[in-house]
Amino acid sequence: MKIPLTPPKLGDIMRKAVGAKRILMIVESGLGPTPRGEYVHWDKLRHLNPPNDFSMEEWWAATKYARRFLYKKLPFEDKHGHPFQYALPDLVYKFLHQVDRDVGGRIQAAEQITNPQTRDTYLIGSLIEEAITSSQLEGASTTRKVAKEMLREGRKPRDRSEQMIFNNYRAMRFIREVVSEELTPSIVLELHRILAENTLDDPRAVGRLRRAEENIHVVDARDGEVLHTPPDAAELKARLDRVCRFANEAESEPFVHPVIRAILLHFMLGYDHPFTDGNGRTARAIFYWSMLRQGYWLTEYISISRILRAAPAEYARAYLYTETDDNDVTYFIIHQLKVILRAIGDLQKYLAKKASEVHEVEGMIRKSPKLRALLNYRQIALLNHALRHPGAIYRIQGHRQSHNVTYDTARNDLLELAKSRLLDQRKIGRAFTFIAPQNLAAQLRQINAK
């Protein structure tokens, strides 16, 4: 990856402008902070055609002049002691409104998520997806199918890639446990310990900040070019303390939008790179912690890492744009808002697909002579419920009471469904239980097709 070109300085451009009239033209151009609707960096803008009779540099000067009035200083500094800042153009307000609408606590979410009987099924699936893709972003090579089987079956990891994924899953569960607590350095270190256990070349680096002899660089995996040199190890403790204070200042002034606060935590942990390895996974996990703590409950059901993995260069470039343009974190904020919105859109499509599948199979049961000959009305009623509630548990006594039949009749109903692999049968103690399988729709289609 090529490091973006550092933009020309606003002051330098103004000094080169010929005459006060030209300078006034730049200042009063009326051009906003988002050329052509995007918050573009100089490295991209220089390839576009400037408006009016501006030179490329003058167009950039007009853009930067508009941004200067929007900048907000952050309580963070780069490794040279220069503060980070961000802007709030209309584009950011638009994205924040969409996130507030779709991820906040008052949305009308799909039944699969709001229903207590199915909520955990979808939550576990989302945690697994984030665990897999967050690890794959950091180099894990295990296939999604194998990884899902490992996590669902509870077997031990067989190699480092599987260990990374297993650790990520544990970390996501850990976040749920500490979401009501204030963020502390010890929580961040414990989170790193969970994420990095049995995955580092040096096991002694797990759960602690990197040391002076461990100063590292972020390099391009393809050509080895150094993309980022994080702050010295001696600064890390103080910097982590500052990150934790910022994480817990939700009610303080000046106001920082909760979603921006979560994104800034993600950015700073990635920028500081406080660990020898596992920094990206830790930063993304802290983002989830912050979003959940601030009431964005639907965040548990989306995977930002899956979106990031589809375009990792854009993720890295958002950091580089910030570093090369006056520590302007707006580039990273906008990138992450787009990622969140894409992840929400993917979740909505997935839930709509599942709902459509349920309606389709329910219709197939009603219209299929083969299935209606195989199933009685009690079994059909149970399967209609099971389609909407994967993982639901059924017991003989409950089925008996629901349909006012004898114990033997209820028992035979459930055993026949288990024999046809339409329910999973298990024995807990002395009693049988029957569980709605995840692949129930596929099983019904297969029986109907025979």
From TrEMBL:
Keywords: ATP-binding, Nucleotide-binding. The active site is at 273. ATP binds at residues 218-228, 277-284. The keyword Nucleotide-binding applies. It holds the Pfam family Fic. Residues 183-335 form the Fido domain. GO terms for molecular function: ATP binding. Gene3D superfamilies: Fido-like domain. This is Filamentation induced by cAMP protein fic.
